[in-house]
Amino acid sequence: MKRVLIVDDSRVSRRMLRNMFEVEGFEVIGEAINGKEGYEQYVKLSPDVVAMDITMPEMNGLDALRLIKKYDPQAKIVIISAAGQKDKVEEATLAGADAFITKPYDNKDIIDAINRC
Ligand SMILES: [Mg+2]
């Protein structure tokens, strides 16, 4: 069973992701509301996969992605971005994102991405 950390500043998004992961048989071991907290939770919990939003206060998802990859190059991070952020795909890829999914997403796209990690 893959252990997932959710990093998203939207309470609604976190709840939707958590429900989806639990229905699909993943274990959600933590949630964080910005990139800084996401990094701290990563270090503390060592999840198998991170589901990472981009736009968040304090520290965005791409900066958190870079920090986490620096700490753990084997980290698996799926970026789940808001619509209209396709221009971030290249930046996320260069930063080491393992997958990039745009909202609104099909649950299957996220599940497939996580299973590939
Ligand atoms: Mg956001």
Describe this structure as you would to a colleague.
With 117 residues, this protein is of the alpha/beta class. It has a single domain, classed as Response regulator (Rossmann fold), CATH 3.40.50.2300. 44% of the residues lie in helices and 21% in strands. It contains five helices and five strands. Strands 2-1-3-4-5 form a five-stranded parallel sheet, sandwiched between helices. The model has no long low-confidence stretch (mean pLDDT 95). Bound molecules: magnesium ion.
User: Structural class, from secondary structure content?
Assistant: alpha/beta
CATH architecture call: 3-Layer(aba) Sandwich
Share of helix among residues?
40-55%
Described by strand count, sense and barrel closure, the largest sheet is:
5 strands, parallel
* General form: globular
Superfamily (CATH H level) name = Response regulator
Ligands bound here?
Answer: magnesium ion
Order of helices and strands: EHEHEHEHEH
In the sheet with the most strands, the strands line up as: 2-1-3-4-5
Strand content: 15-25%
Roughly how many Å apart are the termini?
13 Å
CATH class: Alpha Beta
Radius of gyration: 12 Å
Low-confidence stretches: none
